[in-house]
Amino acid sequence: MRSLPVVAAATGTVLWCAPAPAPFAPPLARALGIRLRLPHERGVALTFDDGPHPDGTPAVLEALAARRASATFFLVGEQVERWPALAADIVAAGHEIALHGFRHRLLLERTPRALARDLDRALWVIGEATGRSPRLYRPPYGVFSAAGLALVRTRRWLPLLWSRWGADWRGRATPESIAARATRRLTPGDVVLLHDADHYGSPGSWRKTAAALPAILDAIEGLGVPCVRTTEDSPTTA
How many Cα atoms occupy the beta-carbon half-sphere of 222 within 13 Å? Predict the structure, then answer.
């Protein structure tokens, strides 16, 4: 028979990790109040993680501008610190900024205090660079800890994951595979995960993402809806 301390420790671990499968378990995400999709079906949201990047971000911004498409960029504080002007460029182009933390580290490995410090630092850096305070949060790798989700709730941020992704960080990905995966069974209301940076993925992966964007935007246009920003009161583009 297991001792009470062992049982308690095991129970604590389970609770700590409970939100982690949310990206791939819609019923769990709904139960925890984590959005995978938009709260409406008036558009599709393109989201880009891990930037800014000195080459990837401008390439993605150019591809979006060519189609007058809006997107949401989940910024990493340590990268904003390196390239603050690029973060400002995202805002100047009319896109939404969101929070992805300061260090790109798994939340399950962070203490609540360390995570709070990380998010405070990210908010300050992003605010200094863009003049904006993000309202949305997506954790690195899309994995929440119980403490991380509680902290997001306390700060009244909106936790947002995704309902479609391009797996564009993989070394074997191609523009064709990214577009096909991102648009497979795509419907209005979907949130699509992509990356405008290769800081934490396969080197040069941003090139494939930028090359895949025209096909992805074609698929969204084929649904008869625009690309929209992810917060409900954000403007949309036709």
Answer: 11
Q: Provide the 8-state DSSP code for 108.
A: G
Which residue, chain included where needed, has tokens 């200094």? 128
Instruction: Kindly list the catalytic residues.
Output: 49, 195
CA 177 and chain centroid, separation: 20
What's the first-to-final CA gap in the chain, in angstroms? 64
Q: Do residues 52 and 86 lie in contact, with contact meaning Cβ atoms separated by under 8 Å?
A: yes
Question: Does the pLDDT at position 215 exceed 50?
Answer: yes
Tokens for 59? Answer: 């390439």
Answer whether 93's CB lies under 8 Å from 237's CB: no
The span from the CA of 180 to the CA of 171, in Å, is 16
Tell me how far apart the alpha carbons of residues 196 and 48 are, in angstroms, rounded to a whole number: 6
Phi-psi bin for 94: left (phi > 0), alpha (psi -120 to 50), beta? left
C-alpha–C-alpha distance, residues 15 and 159, integer Å: 18
171-180 pLDDT tens trace: 999 999 999 9
Task: Report how far residue 187's alpha carbon sits from residue 172's, in angstroms, rounded to the nearest whole number.
Answer: 26
What is the amino acid identity at position 176? E
Which tokens is 176 given?
Answer: 């064709």
Number of residues assigned to the chain: 238
Q: What is the pLDDT of residues 30-47, one digit of tens each?
A: 888 999 999 999 999 999
Q: Give the single-character DSSP code of 236.
A: B
Tell me the C-alpha distance between 99 and 196, whole Å. Answer: 15
Q: Is 223 exposed, middle or buried (0-12, 13-18, 19+ CB in 10 A)?
A: middle
Other beta carbons within 10 angstroms of residue 52's beta carbon come to 29
